[in-house]
Amino acid sequence: TERPKATVNVQPAGHVFIRERVTLTCEIESGDDWNYEWYKNNNLLKDAQRKKYEISNVDQTHAGDYTCKGTQSTGRIYTHTSAAVTLTVSAVKVKPTITSNPEGAALTGNTVTLYCKLHQSAGWTFYWSKHTQSSEKETVTNVYTISSVSLSDGGQYRCRAGRGNPVYYTHYSDALWVNVTGE
Question: How confident is the model at residue 23 (pLDDT cuts 50, 70, 90)?
Fold first, then answer.
């Protein structure tokens, strides 16, 4: 019979930052009662024998290629080794860039859209702040829309992104002025 296939899934992404939490999951397409083996750069990880391999405080020593395979308790059935998933760890916190449409001044009543650009896009929630407000607004996409803008919406805006639990935050973007003018 054909051996089952194993696949590694990584959360939040294959490219992470120091101090993030990473969870690797070994998915096996059929059967139960698997014993799991995890490998990093083809070396067996002796402390990892569960379906999920969690790194709670990732650092650069965790970077590498991860694979898994399973054997059933009888030892007679074993899976193919999974394809490798590469984990890249960056030491530098990223800083997003904030832009707006329209650029420059917006007329009252029109719509202003802010964009928080981040090169590492997987799994982020975006947080928006205005210099006169103490709380942040949260969006699941990198877009924040102010419909029917009024003069009070004018001011400095910044954004940042976060992901994971506990949340790992990027730096704040530089401030962007939103200028609102009357008609």
Answer: very high
Distance CA 36, CA 28 (A): 10
Cα–chain-centroid distance for residue 168?
Answer: 9
User: Among positive and negative, which fits the CA dihedral 75, 79, 83, 85?
Assistant: negative
CA distance 123 to 15: 11
How far is Cα of residue 166 from the mean position of the Cα atoms in its chain?
12
pTM for the full predicted model: 0.74
Instruction: Count CA atoms closer than 13 A to 155's CA, side-chain side.
Output: 13
Q: Which residues contact 81 (CB under 8 A, 6 or more apart)?
A: 6, 39, 67, 68, 69
Please state, in angstroms and as integers, the Cα–Cα distance from residue 159 to each residue in 68, 71, 146, following that order.
Answer: 38, 47, 14
Q: What is the dihedral of CA 55, 58, 59, 64, to 10 degrees?
A: 60
Among 68, 81, 73, smallest CA distance to 23 is for: 68
Sign of the CA dihedral with 69 first, then 39, 84, and 7 last: positive
Residue 54 and residue 14 in contact, taking contact as beta carbons nearer than 8 Å: no
**CA proximity to 155, closest of 106, 119, 109:** 106
